[in-house]
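Input/output pair, single chain:
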Amino acid sequence: MNENTNWSQSVTGVVIRNHQVLLARHTYGIGKNKLIIPGGYVQKDETPQQALKREYMEETNIVVEPKQIIGIRFNMKDWYIAFYAEYISGEAKSDHDENSEVIWLDIDEALSRDDVPDLTKKLIECALKKDQGFDEIPYVGSTKNGIYSLYGIH
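Output:
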């Protein structure tokens, strides 16, 4: 068990390129054998944006840049943030651990397949409407840590 993991904070991101979405076939848990959008837990001393970049690199070999927040799920014990993330570089490859394959799949096909869970489909639909989502609005904080980010509609 990784002691650096914050088990109550997790992230995911939808990456779309050329009308295709990047999906990974999960190897464990409730998502086993399903094609889902990659993501994972935030580590201590890591922002959600940094966590998403790390998770994508570890699981898919793809460099991404988180952009808009397209979904948030929270309850009394944890939270989950979904980003629209821009593809930067890399060739999609499985990590052969958390996933057995990583593929670029046509969006329409992804939205119609039985092996793509409903949550993944909903988040893909949210990503397609990303311009209606929350954008990052940098601001200068009152502490010596410098620039902070607020996500909001502007």
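The CA atoms of residues 34 and 117 lie 7 Å apart. The chain has a mean pLDDT of 90.
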